Amino acid sequence: MIALEKYFDHNSTTPLCEAAREAWLLMADEHWENPSSLYREAGLARRLLDDLREELAEELAVEDAERVVFTSGATEANNAVIHFWSQGPGMVAISSVEHPCVRAAAAGFFGRDRMIDIEVDPLTGQVNLDEVERIVAMGAQVEGVSVMAANNETGTIQPWDVVAELCREAGIPFHSDSTQWIGKEPGGGFSQIDFFTGSAHKFGGPKGVGFLVLPEDFDNCAFIGQLGGPQENGRRGGTEDLAGIAAMIAALKNSANTEDPEEAAARDQFEQALEEAGDFRIVGKRGPRLANTSMIILPHTRNLKWLTRLSDRGFGVSTGSACSAGAGNPSQVMMAMDLEYEEMSRVLRISGGPGQGKKEWMALFDAIQEVNLDLLEE
Ligand code: PMP
Questions:
Q1: Ligand 1 centroid from CA 313, angstroms
Q2: Which pTM was predicted?
Q3: Domain final position from 229, 255, 281
C-alpha cells in the first residue's frame, strides 16, 4: 500500500476515509436486504435509502431530494445525461477538455457531426465564453451544453456558473461534470443548474458509487438512465448499493468541502521551487485551479521514466488521466491546452490530498530534483 504522505494522485482516486468505512460496514452488516423487497427488514433498508437521498440532497443544497439518482459513479451518470439528450435531433456542445466519459459518450451517442467543441484558452484552460454565447444563440438546435466544474488533469476551474446562466437564459439544458469539484470546493451552487454528477471515490468514499442530480420539476418519465428495473423512481434499473451510498455520504460530510488556503500555498511553493530549479513548466497556471492539482511539463526524458523513478522512492504521481493514459492516444486535454505532441510525453500530473502540506509537497520536490539529476547523469 502506498504511503499517504507520498500519494500525489488524488484526482485519480482517494483512500477510503474512516467515516465512510464505518458507514459501509454498518449498512453491509445490518441492512444488506434488497430495498425493493417487501418484508419488514427490506422496508427498513428502503427507508434508509430514502433518508440517504435526503441527506445527500441537503449536502448539495438541493431542495427536492427526488432530483437525486444514485449511480455506479460519474462515468455512468455522465453517459446517462448525454444519452438522454441524444434522443433529440439537435447538436450537443461539449468543452474540449471534458473527461473521456463525456466526450466519448457524445461521440458515441450523437456522432462526431452532431458535436460542437467549446474551445479553451490554452493559458488559463477556461472555456471561451464568447464561443458559448455563439452556441447558445443557436437556441433549439442545441440539445444541451456540457462544461465540467474542474478539470481532472490541469485542475482548471471552469466558469460553469456563467455558462449555466447563459444556457438558462437561452432555455438550453446544461450539464456540469462536477466530479473533481465536489468534496474539494464548496458545493452549494450546483443546485441551480440542470444536471450535475459526482463520484464517491474522489472524496474518500468507495469506488463504484456516485450520483446524478436531475433538473428541478423534471418529468419523471422523461429520463431513464439505465433500463431494466423500477429502482430509483424508475430512473435507473439495478439494485441499489445501500452500503456504498451510505459510505459516499459519510465521506462527503467528512471531506473538507471548502477551499484550503494552506493546500494552495503548499502547491504554489512546490511549483515555484520547480520553476526556479530548472526548465519545468506549469500548465494552466494563469487560470483559477483546484488547490491540490499541478500539471507539469518535465524538462527532458519521457514521463514514464520519471514516474517509475518517483515510484521507486515511494511517490505516486500520474502521467495524465488514468482513463486516457495507456491508450496510446494523445490526451484531448493536452491537445486543447496547445501542448506539442512531444511535450505530451513529458507531462506529470500531481494531485495532493488532505493532510499534505508544505512538508509533503517539498518532499516530492526533493525527490523530483533527485530524479532530475539522476536522469541528467545517465
Ligand atoms: N469525470 C471526471 C472529471 C473524472 O475525473 C472522473 C474520474 N477520473 C470521472 C468523471 C469518472 O468517474 P468514475 O470513476 O466515478 O466513473
A1: 28
A2: 0.95
A3: 255
